[in-house]
Structure formats: C-alpha cells, structure tokens
Amino acid sequence: MQIDTIKELLNLPAGWLVTKVLSWSMEEIRVLVQESVIGWQRCEGCGWTGWMGSKGYFKTLVEDLALGTRRVYLHVEHHRYRCKECERSWSLEVPWIRSESRVTQRYAEQVFRLTSITTNAEAGWYLGQDDEKVYRIDKGILEEKAAQILNPTPAAKNISVDEVSWKKWYRYLTNVVDTDRKKVIWNSNGRKAEVLDKYYEGIGPENCQKVELVALDGARTYISSTVSNAPQALIVYDKFHVVQRLNKAVDAVRKQELRKARLAKEDDLVDMMNCHSRFVLLKNKANRTEKESDHLKRLCEINEPIYKAMLLKESFLEVYTNIDETSAAECLNSWLTQAFASGLEAFLELGVSFRDKAQYILNWFKKRISSAISEGINNKIKRLKRMAYGYRDVDYFLLKIHQHCGLLNPRSAQ
User: Fold this and answer.
1) Which of 30, 245, 290, 343 has CA atoms 20 to 30 A from the CA of 234?
2) Which domain does 193 fall in, by range?
3) Residues 278 and 310 sit within 8 Å (Cβ to Cβ)
4) Is the pTM here over 0.85, yes or no?
C-alpha cells in the first residue's frame, strides 16, 4: 500500500505528516507520524514568547482505528521545545490523542459507541483491549460529554423522580426523568431530601418555578424537597407505587398468617399460603385464572385476616374507577375507615401513610401521569448493572445511566 493512500485513510489533521511505514503484516500496521509545525511559541513555564526551534522529539505510541482486520499503531513524534529564558523543555498538546489511554480521538469514539450497546468486557474483547483500558477511555469521553450536555443541569416542566438500588445494604441512586423526552436528565448518589435539593439548585429558582408536575413514589424525602423548592408543582403519588404498597401489605398479612399456621402445624393452610402461592394474592382480579380464583376463594373462607386483606385491596382499587377527584376522595375516605377498623397491622400502617398523602393520591385525577417511564428506565438500569456484574465506581455508574438511558446516548439526536 502506498504511503499516500495511508495518509488519506488516516486523515491526520494539519501539521502532521505520515513519513514512513515501519512495518506491515496481516495482523498490524505500524506508521511513523511526525509533527511538522515549528516556529513562534509561548513557553508554558515562564510565558516567554519567541522563536523556538525543535530540540528533538517526544515519542508516543498510540493506536488508531483498524484498517480492515489490521490494527494500526502510530509512532507519533512531536517536537520538544526548549525555552531560551527558563530552559524548560515542553511540547504542544496533541488534541487528537487521548493521553489517558494512548489512543486517537476517533478510536476512543468507537469505543464509546460500542460500550453504549454492550459491556466493557465484550467491547474490549472485540477490540483486543483489556477491560481497564476500555473503562478509562469510556469514562473519559463520558465526563467530557457530560460537561458539555449536562452542565448546566437540564430543566424540564414534567418530571418523574424515583430511586434505584445500585449496591447491597440499601445503597440507592436518585434519578430524575423528563417525562416528555422520556430520558434521565439528572442523577446522584443517595435518596435523601438533600440529594433532590441538588437537582433543584442546579436548574435554578427560575426553572424551579416552571416545574408543573412531579410524579414520585410517595417518599417523604422527595415530597419535602419538591414542596420546598417547587411549591407550585403538582405532586402526583404514582398509581403504580400505590398498588405496590397495597400488594406489600397483603403479602405482610400472608407472611404473618403463614407463621401462625406453621406454629399450629396446619399443613394444608401452609401449602395454600407458601411463597409459591403468594402471586395469587398479588394478581389483579381480571388476570386470575379460574383455578387461581378457586384457590383464593378457598383460602379466604378458612382464613379471616387473608379475607380482610383481599377485601381491602379490591376496595381500594375502586378508588381509581372514579371519574373525578370528588367521588374518588369519598371512596378513599371510606377505604381509610375500613383499613383502620380491620385490625390488621400492615393495613393500619398503610392507612396512616395514605391518609397523610391523600391529596397526592387524588392529584392523579387532575393529571393522569405515572412514573411508569421511570420504572421502565429502572429496569434498564438494573439490566445494565447485571450485565456488568455491578459497579465499584458510583460516579462511572451514574455516567453509564446517562449513556444508556439519558442524553449521553450516542443514538439520541442532540
């Protein structure tokens, strides 16, 4: 292959010349690249400006995009200048080389594109690189893109706030999703009110006043932060999480009754309430099979607490069958009376929680929005975490969420 052809394929910026092909094989190509620009320069040490001729070369080995199946290595020689005033030696920065990983900028962009659709380990295997180098390249580009796109913090009128676990022992992240664009626009480590305060501080008081709706999972920390920073926003206690809380209460009653049945050695009742049967209790009425309905009917006949729990679950779901906020409020108040009279500890606690957040539940009838988008994104985040077998660097994990679910995704139109 002629050297002119290699020059065209490498497409080096002005001031850099391909001077020699050092080696050529079926596996790799090694090319000598030299800097051609010398002249008036400013010393990085003392600031003196004047004519500085080359005093030799600094040599760097970098990898570029492959040509076909052959890996390409560039032996880069850039001028070493020596200041006449302070006698300091230095060289000009090479913008098309990434110093942290010794690859060209376009090679790094290729790594970034691969890691946005697969794991670092698989991207490294495909490119013939180790995981650590892929990690350095990927994180470096993500940090640069985050500084350009995510700073200042993107604002939105309608947002959904949710948490997702990133590590064992109750380690959580807070994600803010723009429900209009369906993308993560901000995230941070933790789930306290102070964490969400950072988002509101990032968008500034003016943008806080423009927030119209916030869908969340009922967490007091998120509610208090939103009330404090965006008091005009309509807070909606998401229907998905309300039903989730109901199911947890039903399951808590099941576990309590299961323990009693085991102590009393009631084997038939134990078989009906074990973990394999719990999904019958959690399913919606419309989704149950005939066999599951018969199983639930028999269980309710022989166990009063389970019967009460199922009645409370079904009666609460009737709240969402109302067409307006007024009738829904009457239905909710009726349910709260039933819950407090049930004598079931799990529903007593749930009743207190729903009573305190009743207005946020009823706000759903003003703006029928949910955090289903956040839940879908959370599933993608969990999948991302499982693919990588977890992340030790939480800052890198936050950036990866933006890469796969947010504004740093290379497939997104910027």
Assistant:
1) 245
2) 158-238+398-405
3) no
4) no
